[in-house]
Amino acid sequence: MEQNLSGPALIKASAIAVVLAAVVFITLVMPAEFGQDPTGIGKQLGLTAIAEAEEKTVIQYADNGGELREDTIELVVPAGQGIEYKLFMEKFQKVEYEWLSAGDAMYFDLHGEPKGDTTGYFESYAIATLPEMKGSFTAPFTGTHGWYWKNTSAEDVQILLQTKGQYSLAKPAQNQEDTP
Amino acid sequence: MLLLFGSLTFAHGVDEQTRLFLQSNTGANLIPFMYIGAKHMITGYDHLLFLFGVIFFLFRTRDVLIYVSLFTLGHSTTLLLGVLMEVQLNAYLIDAIIALSIVYKGFDNLGGFRKILGHSPNSKMVVFIFGLFHGFGLATKLQEFQLPEDGLLTNLLAFNVGVELGQFAALAIIVIAISAWRRHESFMRFATVSNTLLMSAGFLLMALQLTSYFQS
What we know:
The complex is a heterodimer of chains A (180) and B (216).
Chain A: H1 7-34, H2 41-45, H3 48-64, E1 69-77, E2 82-89, E3 94-101, E4 106-114, E5 123-130, E6 132-138, E7 143-150, E8 157-165, E9 168-169, E10 173-176
Antiparallel strand pairs in A: 1-8, 2-7, 2-9, 2-10, 3-6, 3-8, 4-5, 4-7
Helix pairs in contact in A: 1-3
Chain B: H1 2-6, H2 16-24, H3 30-43, H4 45-55, H5 61-84, H6 91-109, H7 112-117, H8 123-143, H9 152-182, H10 186-215
């Protein structure tokens, strides 16, 4: 069972089918799926953003050369002293972290220093006295970013630090007496 | 229409969680595989569009059952054989053929083949053959997951049963809707428009799959 269109009607229906498919494909599907937008309509409708969103993610990782890495580090803050632990990060790289002190709440300063800076400038992202902290940050500039912990107690305190993100490890500067 | 195209890339893809499940699964897992099969069918609009075309002019329940059984026989055969014999076909090309089946059915419904060839090709045979291609499509997608050998046959059968259940559920809705519509005089008036749109959707899916193929 089927219809019985006349020859011209059949040709017309088929032509409409092809043209309609072509129009939708060129104006909507190509921009959204393949990031090609010959008519410019996809951009106006915001469809090209769909295809670009995928590309951007890929490029971002490639640019950084920064693969995601994960580290778990055990640090010891000697009694009455402070230590620093730093990550080297490019501008806009991100890191998630979590640290936990085995002792009481500790004074800390999470901060960053720009690469090549000799003036001693630094920018603090968080200063508090806590037994643990979890969070994330995006490096506002290329340089070293990390923690200063101060142990005011009479006993050494262990700290367990977990980091995940795009960075390389800077050497820990041990036994600093002063706050950064 | 826009909604339909919005989720185009996910039409046949299996979502991330399902992928993880399929790849980490070991042993026979009846219900999950049935579920995945059913979900695949219900969300696989190219299968549904083809079925819509097939039953568009089937007025009797008996005919619906015969045609759908032939389609099922076709795709079950190639789904099982394809996976068990590890037949690897290009997913984009298979999907392009499935899209072609939609165009074919739309054109056939318009009476195109009778006009050109003087007769409509044996439509039962055609439905069976396209069923074979639809099954290869399913098989190709399943094989991308490198399913573990352990419990493979059981899982495949469960997947296939799920596909049938999903197809049945979707068909029930389509049949009821079309039957209701047929009583209306607008059905014949819009029959040409409907099948033209069906062809157009087939052309669009073909363009999408072929472009993806040439880009891959």
